[in-house]
Design a protein that fits this description.
- Helix content is 32%, strand content 20%.
- It is α+β, with helices and mostly antiparallel strands.
- It has two domains: 107 residues, no CATH class; 201 residues, Dna Topoisomerase Vi A Subunit, Chain: A, domain 2.
- The strands form three sheets. Strands 1-2-3-4-5 form a five-stranded antiparallel sheet. A five-stranded antiparallel sheet has the order 6-7-8-9-10, with no helix packed on it.
């Protein structure tokens, strides 16, 4: 495995948690100005390394025994690692994988969701668990109907952080009890309102599901999911990997889109996947499931969802046209 430390900038500092901070080389390649405040962080162990930039949000990682990913290769190139050295590392990594290791990988893939795996991720160094002693953040979570036992953090940026003046909360993304990413939601309405560290194919809320549940409710946003123990795809679409993960739960799926024009994309995708759709007749000021829970409470909201649940393509299309007409008037 490559000793990556000699390729890091000489100006760097180490933290007690094992992270090494230095000027991130990725920012200028991702539309940001050159990092001069050591916003890049890398953690190295015997099995590989993990890099995260707290300026432009770029991440990359490498584990011995696996192929170098496209992002890992780019990161090494930005560190001026010679091309032949990068190829040597990749070949050595593949040789390192024994026959038994390949068999273990195949078995692990067979036991996971059709080959979907998520790597462990670190939460931001600024993460601090929210409790009643942080009244602004605590009340925000209560207003958004987030369960008190779900671990959430507050945003408190460093002086050199471009978002340091914006307050907000951090919601960890978990899968099988492991942290595999997070989202930051700022309190103000300036853009960006959300910053995701999200891996391809990830669906939020699988750890919220009960073991014997027969239904799964798919929504768009993380607060929608938290308020009803649902599944959030975190954008107005469902990609193939997310669909495979949701199907693996072996439940009757109901998609509840946001009641805006963007949310109608979820309706079309749900029909394509053969899933039920629910578009309750809520007042015009209620845009999504979280708004409904804040207005009616969780139980009544769930009743509304199941009462409006529809599997007929014709009836789904009629209800969709009604919603679109209301939105445009």
């Amino acid at each position: 495995m490559i000793d990556i430390l000699p390729y890091l900038p000489t100006k760097r500092k180490s933290t007690a948690s094992g992270w090494i901070s230095f000027n991130a080389p990725c920012c200028v390649h991702n539309g940001e100005s050159s990092d001069r405040r050591q916003r890049g962080g890398i953690k190295v162990n015997d099995q590989g390394w993990s890099f995260h930039c707290f300026n432009c949000g770029f991440t990359a990682s490498f584990i011995q025994g696996r192929n170098l990913s496209f992002k890992a290769r780019r990161f090494l190139q930005w560190l001026n690692v010679p091309k032949e050295e990068i190829e040597r590392v990749n070949l050595e990594s593949l040789r390192h994988r024994s026959v038994q290791g390949i068999l273990d990988d195949r078995q692990r893939t067979a036991n996971t969701v059709q080959g979907i795996e998520f790597e462990d991720r670190e939460l931001p160094d600024t993460f601090a668990l929210i409790d009643q002693h942080m009244p602004v953040h605590w009340q925000y979570l209560r207003d958004r109907c987030v369960p008190e036992n779900y671990p959430t953090g507050m945003i408190h940026g460093q002086p050199d952080d471009k978002f340091s003046r914006r307050q907000g909360v951090i919601i960890p993304f978990t899968y099988d009890g492991r942290i595999v990413g997070h989202t930051q939601r700022f309190f103000d309405d300036h853009n960006p309102r959300y910053i995701h560290d999200m891996q391809p194919g990830y669906v939020f809320g699988t750890d919220l599901q009960g073991p014997n549940w027969k239904h799964a409710i798919v929504v768009e946003g993380v607060f929608d999911a938290l308020s009803i123990a649902g599944l959030a795809v975190l954008h107005a679409e469902i990609n193939d990997a997310q669909a495979r993960l949701i199907r693996s739960l072996d439940r009757e799926v109901t998609v509840v889109p946001d009641q805006d024009e963007a949310g109608m994309k979820l309706v079309d995708r749900a029909v394509e996947l053969g899933w039920a759709v629910s578009m309750p007749e809520w007042p015009s000021n209620i845009k999504d499931v979280n708004d409904a829970v804040k207005c009616f409470g969780q139980l009544v909201t769930l009743i509304h969802i199941f009462q409006a649940r529809e599997t007929s393509k014709i009836k789904i299309e009629l209800r969709k046209k009604q919603l679109v007409k209301r939105l445009r008037n």
